[in-house]
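Q: What would this chain look like folded?
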Amino acid sequence: MRWLVGWCGASASAARDIQPLGAQLLWEGPDPLWAVGDWRADEIRLVYADGDTHLAVFGYCGADDATLRRSLVSARAGALRQLTTWPGSYTAIARFGRRTVIPADLAGTRPVFHADWAGGSAYATAALPLADLTEAQLDVAHLAALLAAPEAPEALGTGTPYRGVHRVPQGHALMLREGGSHDVVGYEPTAPLVVAAPPVEREAAVSGVRDALVEAVRTRLAAPRHTPARDAGPVPGMGPADRRAARFGPEPAPGVGADLSGGSASATLALLAAGLPGMPGTVFGTGATQAGERLLAVTFNDLTAGGGGPGGIARAAELERARAIAENPRLHHVVVAAGDEALPYADLENGPLTDEPGPALITAARHRHRLSAGSADHLVGHGARQVLDAHPARLADLLLDRRRRHLLRPATALAKASGGGGRAMLVPFTLYRAARRLARTPYPEGLSSAALALRNTIEGPDGDAPDADGALGASLAALAWCRPGPAARWLTGEALAEVSIRLEAAAARPRSASASSRPGEQRARAVLARHAADHRVFEQAAEVRHQRLHAPFYDNQVVRACQALPESLRVQPGARADVLRAVLEGAGVRELPPGWGATTHASHTESVRAGLRANIGELVNLFDAPLLADAGLIEARVVRKALRAAAQGERLPLDGLAELVSTEVWLRRLLTRRGSCWTAEGNHDPRAVTSGVTL
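A: My prediction, written as structure tokens:
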């Protein structure tokens, strides 16, 4: 895990006596800055302007030094947004004398955390180092909110799993001043300005998405190529590289690669990276690479997927689309096959400690198996669904704008998905009534309804209420300002009551003038933030030594371009595939395989259920004496029963069980942790986070 840490206004004695382990000092003086971890040399850039004004950029940024310097001067005058408008994915830290500014990104994959310490404020790009520094205890109330309402910013607030450590919201910047005071300010235009702006035409919006995606991929291709150093030693198979491979797994291939799952998002990135002019992505001569192949494309083949069920049929179609796309002579295609050893819930005993809990912990072994065959810089299509697709609550936004006719196509698609008969005829009316009810529901009333729904979730000791059926049920459930998460049904009454109190308190607070009054915009932003946080956990949990994962759909400029898409375009069925098809056509790719853009979750659901069946014994043992029960969040007996029922095929929310298991696994890794992120005589407790936790 790589992270940055610094502080402002801390007492001289405390700042002098402590420093992070394995750190590279970038700025000296009373307000230092360190980079910790295996940062590459080209991932750290320092730019200096006139006077005591300088900028540090970490990650992959497509701007040259002159552009960075101009943006730095503009930010010094108050235009903080200029620090976030460069292509790529990065963290920028600007210093103006004794004033420091650190903007968080728009999605949440590049977060910023802060905490009060030693009379000043400390900041970092990871929460765990700050928890170590301040000797913070575990915040059980935040874990309850994370399980009960993971997509509700009102329940989560700015907290983290560690008391006293706070997260800077997406689209905001942390501003530290001399003396230790700090402010969190937004850098995006306020709502009135956005509403007053003329709407962007469809062609211009799609063109903006194309330009942003092409520039994002070009930024990765323009970065220096990295080849892991290999020392074979005097005896083949016994050198240092072979011993490292036996301990940490195989090294990634040199250069740039991409996922090729058969889905539209990963295929778009792979085809863009293979077709853009310039230096090829892969290094010629790697493995069986042939002349003309520019990019290593990796496809995962799950051998446990059944061929007769819906998931097996959908997965076979995805593999066929990946094979057809891989016929492109610029792609070097590698298929990674895996069996039971790469099922979800496998190998939970091993794995790194992530900054926060997340569902990716249960699939980390599966992802590592796939990513180990990738490249040193690997493109993934994560985030495309969240930035391009329309959240169902956007139907209410269309009603607020009096554009009812745009509801016809999504309602018809839901009617087809619901099957034939009289029930399908009622779908458009049901959907319209739900969207109209949400459009007419004030924000405080929506939060109060969610708090009431949390309290009503307590249905007895088993909490096994049936799920809503199909796509229609999921869409109707999403037509709300706020709703309980899938794991809420297994939480205790005390935990649910505490989260409901948070929601009611948020409903009673006055809203800021810049807050959106449109439910679709707010829900889409919350879902994007939740998935971006899960992607960050995925990066840490599935990390392969000497590999960097790149998700261009989460880049600031790509997110902004996707936000400019008209809502009437977003809500149409197949909108994501149409936009990505237009992106590829603009890049010269016009022939795509049949079924391009097909979406299905059946194969993922079947693999998760197969992983439950294969590992049910270990999972039940995990909840024999769970730490979540010690914290008062669950009853162990209830969760054990739910795990057995889900493994036997009962219809239960598998995402909720995954969140419970991953949180329990994360807690066990945290409480068995040894050591600290800091070293100094003044750090009297080297296991600060674990030593003060009371469950």
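DSSP finds 28 helices and 19 strands in the chain.
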